[in-house]
């Protein structure tokens, strides 16, 4: 009897196919070429870092220069003196400490209010179906096409009229300025949060409703914790915008002790004969500290996405 033959797979690698006539041989990337690419990338990154860091170093150097001009600060850190920082808090006509506290107060309250109102509006647009929903979303975007600068005169007249009836929200009040900021920031922030809420699975809401949870409980205990990244971004952008806003704050706040940093610092350089750019630079350096601190505090929420793995 003839035994059946068995096919044994060869462990050797088959030889490469011969190239056709006229076909160019493939080129392999050499380590030298890869090294050149890494060098170019590092050079580009270094150039970008220099462009980004140099203005910061220049402002810090100017703030430490004892003279009041920027021309003498061209050589970085040629002279180091803290007199400009001391002068910020020793001028009775220019209360920098009050400006700093006012900016923190207005920025924090405006950021918290913007996040809360924007999240409430975004939840309604994302989870509820009602007449005029699409028209409302489109209207939010259309209103944001017009900057707040166009409404400065209307804002001034409105606050002046409201001040006769409700002095707490009239001209030269922090509450009136905060209300203006809250109304102006609703559009873009609402649309940003609305887009993030749409990425949160609706099955979470349905499961909570089966357990008897109301819309308020779902919003505060489920949606908001899962949406921490976008809320952190909105809070950071709102704080930066309100802290550095100048036009509306200069119109609403006229009393120096009630002004913000953006309006108050302008007094150091507004007069041509008495402009002191070194003191202005020192104030700008201190004004950037809360923004940087807030960014590092919210960095983990900005980078991480908390909705990953929410549905099992």
Protein model, in words:
- It is found in: Cell membrane.
- It comes from Flavimobilis marinus.
- Its main location: membrane.
- Residues 100-298 form the ABC transmembrane type-1 domain.
- GO terms for molecular function: ABC-type maltose transporter activity.
- The protein has a domain at 93-310: MetI-like (MetI-like fold), CATH 1.10.3720.10.
- Helix 1 (31-63) packs across helix 12 (277-297) and helix 6 (174-197) packs antiparallel against helix 9 (228-244).
- Mean pLDDT is 82; it is low at 1-11 and 305-312.
- It contains 13 helices and no strands.
- The chain is 62% helix and 0% strand.
- The radius of gyration is 30 Å and the shape is globular.
- The protein is mainly α and 312 residues long.
- 23% of the residues are buried.
Structure summary:
The chain has 312 residues and is mainly α. The chain is 62% helix and 0% strand.
